[in-house]
Design brief:
11 helices
């Protein structure tokens, strides 16, 4: 019973979330189909205003209702949304023109007052979103904050790197502000490096050395997940193109540097792919590499090292 909702609440969810994502003309929200008939959006600095009309249809009960809405986003988590059933084209036009005029003048209190008047107190906020969308929107709102925090920490880390090294040479523990900046930046960079198609192995090596130098505790769970996902993806590419010595060398380097972190990597798929490449391609390369000065020898040696790091013995 506490989870029950009605079409106006669905309308509130649709109108508020439309500020943060571009819906197509017709979209599905859980068991409802929402079709946008009118949608106008205005921006003024960090303020956003959306006014529109949409039809909402339940695919379970077949209830259909046409709603009008106005959403004012004041920045961060501050959202004021009015939603009501559609009355007439004249009422909608009056509401739209009055609220838009107040918004263009920058009169925020008047916009809120007009919304309360036209929607007869049927006002919703971010907390009326469905839980999943609530988390998604909050993550989007906080993303800008995260970027600002990271920029501040990076500035502290970069500007004080020399004095941090001096502390290290004296075998003294880093002051807490420097340690916090190093912790945040190194963990962020370690996670981000595996989001690239071809991670910079030398940068990875340097970051791992810095975790040891400063005594940083890494986010093992997240980094292991991201690193494991990249290794498995890279092995799939190698499986498709086993002659790619550049990719083969990159995987070996990456695993070599990660070894010192003692991460619990999920490598069963990579191991299976390694075995398959060994069976279908490796045997032929090994036979060719036995000739003197054979170019295949480099591939064979690198492939054997990969087996060592993947814990696969052929």
């Amino acid at each position: 019973k506490p989870a029950r909702t009605d079409i106006l609440r669905v309308g509130a969810h649709y109108s508020i979330s439309s500020i943060f994502e571009n819906y197509p003309e017709e979209t599905e929200l859980y068991c409802y189909t929402v079709k946008s008939e009118i949608y106008n959006r205005s921006e003024a600095g960090k303020l956003n205003l959306a006014i529109g009309k949409a039809s909402i249809n339940s695919r379970i009960t077949w209830d259909l209702e046409v709603i009008t809405f106005a959403v004012l986003h004041l920045g961060d988590q501050n959202i004021n949304a009015g939603v009501r059933g559609f009355l007439s084209g004249e009422d909608f036009s009056t509401m739209k023109s009055e609220i838009s005029a107040a918004f263009e003048k920058g009169d925020t209190p008047e916009v809120i007052r007009l919304m309360d008047k036209h929607f007869e107190g049927k006002i919703y906020s971010l907390w009326h979103l469905f839980k999943e969308e609530q988390r998604k929107v909050l993550d989007q709102i906080l993303q800008l904050t995260y970027e600002s925090v990271e920029a501040s920490y990076r500035q502290i880390y970069d500007n004080n790197y020399t004095i941090m090294n001096f502390y290290h040479s004296l075998q003294r523990r880093l002051p807490r502000p420097f340690l916090a900046a190093a912790d945040y930046i190194i963990n962020s960079d370690l996670k981000r490096i595996f989001e690239e198609e071809a991670p910079d192995a030398e940068k990875l090596k340097r970051l791992i050395e810095e975790t040891e130098r400063w005594g940083i505790r890494i986010d093992e769970t997240t980094i292991a997940f991201k690193a494991g996902a990249w290794i498995n993806s890279a092995m799939e590419s190698l499986h498709e193109n086993p002659e790619d010595i550049t990719l083969l060398s990159l995987i070996v380097k990456t695993l070599k540097y990660l070894k010192s972190l003692n991460l619990s990597l999920n490598l069963w798929n990579a191991q299976n792919l390694y075995f398959d490449v060994s069976r279908s391609f490796g045997a032929e390369m090994k036979r060719k590499s036995e000739k003197e000065d054979a170019p295949e020898k480099k591939w064979t040696d690198t492939f054997q090292r990969l087996g060592f790091y993947l814990h696969v013995k052929i």
